[in-house]
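Supplementary Methods, section 5.1.

A reviewer requested that the exact input to the structure prediction be made available. We therefore reproduce it here, unchanged from the version used in the analyses.
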Amino acid sequence: MKLQEIMDKFAIGLSAMCAIHCLAVPVLLVLLPSAAALGLGNEQFHFWMLVAVLPSSLLALFLGCKKHKRYRLLMLGGAGLVLLSAAVLLGENVIGEAGEKVLTLLGSLFVVTGHWFNFRLCGKKRGTEECLSS
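The structure derived from this sequence is encoded token-by-token as follows.
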């Protein structure tokens, strides 16, 4: 498995985790108020997820775009990363809880979509190269 494939899958997983975290934590806190002691709603979670998502996303998208030449995917993933970064940098205090959730969910959606297409195009490109070399 190539580095680009691993990073695409890693970034998809992390972005999905961000989205699930945004949607599930409020429900979990309503159903289990004692879960608040776990610090699941902690802003540090978003920061550290962003620290992991940024380099893995940029690396995977850059490597993929070098291979398949569809640079729109880099722009799509980059837009998602900008939205995720804005959610972390502006935070709940500036844009409110709803604004933070909207930016995080949209950013995650863009990142996941960019990586999904990147992964698929690289797989097609790899399959074509394997067929040509046979």
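Residues 72-133 form the longest helix (62 residues). These observations are discussed further in the main text.
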